[in-house]
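Folding problem:
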Amino acid sequence: QLQLVESGGGLGQPGGSLRLSCVASGGHFSVWTLGWYRQAPGKRREWVAAITNGGNTHYTESVKGRFTISRDNAKNTVYLQMNSLTPEDTAVYYCNADLFLAPILSPDKLNTWGQGTLVTVSS
């Protein structure tokens, strides 16, 4: 059974940085494709970034050049380094895992979610 525990959220300043972490367990972490998502108040959950088991990365357009996804297979952990934060980045952030990239890019296809971690960007 997949289990996901996100952490690292908090209050960030516009233009500042935060680093999120997610520990994923319940399977063979190293073979998974991993993704980060966010859900802003009143909006649907959206995909933000993905990293394959080979280390290839993908980003939604609004975070390209600002966010970096990475993974540490030894720690069963995926990270999201968020730089140049804007108020529009305010959301609850979630991670997820799947064997394939396609479901990772479509959060509606994923069933198991963690509690998320809240990121608030405000001065």
